[in-house]
Amino acid sequence: METTCGLDLTSDRSSDGGNADPPTEEQTGSATGDAGPPTEEQTGSAGPPTDEETGPPDPPTDQDTGSPGPCVAAGWYDMTREFNAYFAGHRTESDAMMPAGPAQEVRVRRAGGAGEAQVTFRTRSVGKGEAEDGRRVAEVFAAWRHAAYGDTGTVFVRSTEGREVATAPW
Asked: Distances in Å between the alpha carbon of 103 and those of 24, 63, 64, 87?
């Protein structure tokens, strides 16, 4: 199973008919049969992209043009740090059972024009308290997306054990 940015990106589809072996000389057109990543000589680049070479790191919005952002995997953007920073500034007494940064993972994408988010959060609450904390995370998430990006979508909030505890529109 391949995972990137915490998302399962496995697929039963393959562009080469399902062959998982490295490409042959006939497939690559290379006399060396080089199936590895491009070298500096092939790309003219000496290493991974720098901050100056990457596209804008903004998350998807209704006006998104498809430009890459932080940890883009299959269209998912990692927004964990940004959401936790917003949540820290909007804590209430009801958030006492959650750590200062309750989101373990926040992923956002545009799917068919609609926004979708998956939030995995931490809390010391159990049972009904866990569900209440999950709804609070969804509520703060919706307020954050409206304030910061003005877009709409649906947020799915899960516990660290993977149970979906809240779903809400934003």
From this structure: 45, 26, 24, 9
